[in-house]
Amino acid sequence: MIQKIKGTMDIFPEEAGTFQYLERVMREEAARYGFGEIRTPTIEWTDLFVRGVGDTTDVVQKEMYTFADRDENRSICLRPEGTSSVVRALIENGKCGDTMPQKYYYIINCFRHEKPQAGRSREFFQFGTEMFGSDSPMADATAIALAASVLRRIGLRSVRLHLNSIGCRNCRPSYRAALVDYFTGHRDELCDTCRTRLEKNPLRLLDCKNPPCAALAAKAPRTVDHLCPDCRAHFDTLCRTLDAMGISYTVDPAIVRGLDYYTRTVFEFIAEGIGAQSTVCGGGRYDGLVSSLGGADLSGIGFGMGITRVILAMQAEGISAPEAEVPALYIAALGEEAAVAAMAITERLRRAGHVVECDVVGRSLKAQMKYANKLRAAYTLILGGDEVASGKAQLRNMADGSQREVTLADFTL
Ligand code: ATP
Ligand code: MG
To answer: What residue's CA is closest to ligand 1, atom 13?
Structure first.
């Protein structure tokens, strides 16, 4: 018996219905906020993420699924995230010179070789958005409002927006120095990876999941205390704008995000009550990314929302997706002649756009009626030899038991 790969999932219609509902809400909200869909490949050259996400991040160091391309002797990987691909597509297709802002969204599968657990899988699904070409905090507010709007429409009440600014190139050196100073004082308490990070990328020390490192990180210097005047003003305007838009948030200095490309605004929507993997949506500004991947000096802001984590949050709050459409009609048939007639009517009504079912496994009439009840069909029609011969049958309303005679050849629902 071959089993699925660890950390992947099989999704059957019932749960797929929840995915479809969420995807519909995401697409509709994205359209309201003026974001158009972009589709990029599942595979990319590994270098894209090494440069985009950053070579000292966990994603690049430990989590990518990479393999050699058969004929180019170059490393390919399954995308671990969406932003780098969108930026590559933007540059490659000459969109950097187009009218700004450019607003894109996507619903994709991503792959990361992480330890599978509740809310963390190796293939996962993400709704993501990217907006390019605006430095203004109004762009940040638009992205945040879109994420908030999706979560609000789903009805989630336990999800809170945590907001922070991690500054830019100008504020980074002073902050970096303060961090190095602080963590050097605690060098012996750090894990091996963090000791390397201390030299290579001290900001990454802030998102180590090791409890001793995390405890130290909690007391580390805060980015918000090291912002340059421009970043300070940007963050203040963003906060004021969100206030005016009626979007509540908590300024949370602990939000730093796990990927290297972020600048200034970073944010997470965190659900209470779904366990350790509680970030349903994470995002931020990435002003240096487009140019670092070879494009124009374009700023960007985006987020990724984990679809399975949204589902966990829904479950924790007892929210379910709208139910799937039940059949309008179940046609029960007795004998082969009637079964053929039932198939013909079913097909005619399906072509007219109705959800109709009939027997395809050869059940007894009694079992067919039981099945019709299970399907919660609104109407039933019973066909026997007499009905086929006369071309007429009784259409039964299952809600009130009332019946009316219909002509089999042309009745509609
Ligand atoms: P986390 O802090 O949970 O590790 P992250 O910072 O690695 O998340 P991003 O790269 O920003 O996550 O991805 C955006 C969103 O995608 C996350 O907020 C989360 O909802 C979801 N996500 C990330 N990794 C996984 C995973 N392995 N399984 C399921 N969902 C995930
Ligand atoms: Mg992660």
So the answer is: 304
Structure tokens at 408: 């089999």
Distance (Å, rounded) from C-alpha 413 to C-alpha 402? 15
**Would you say the pTM of this structure is higher than 0.85?**
yes
- Residue owning the nearest CA to atom 10 of ligand 1: 81
* Shortest-distance ligand to the CA of residue 53: 1
Please name the residue whose Cα sits nearest to atom 5 of ligand 1: 258
* Residue of 409, 383, 388 whose CA lies nearest to 396: 383
Q: Ligand 1: residues whose CB is within 6 Å?
A: 81, 112, 114, 119-121, 124, 126, 257-258, 277, 279-282, 304, 306, 308-309
pLDDT digits (tens, 9 = 90+) for 180-216: 999 999 999 999 999 998 988 888 888 788 899 989 9
CB 314 within 8 A of CB 25: no
Convert the pLDDT of each residue in 108-155 to its tens digit: 999 999 999 999 999 999 999 999 999 999 999 999 999 999 999 999
Q: How far is the CA of 146 from the centre of ligand 1 (A)?
A: 18
Output the CA 258–ligand 2 centroid distance in Å. Answer: 7
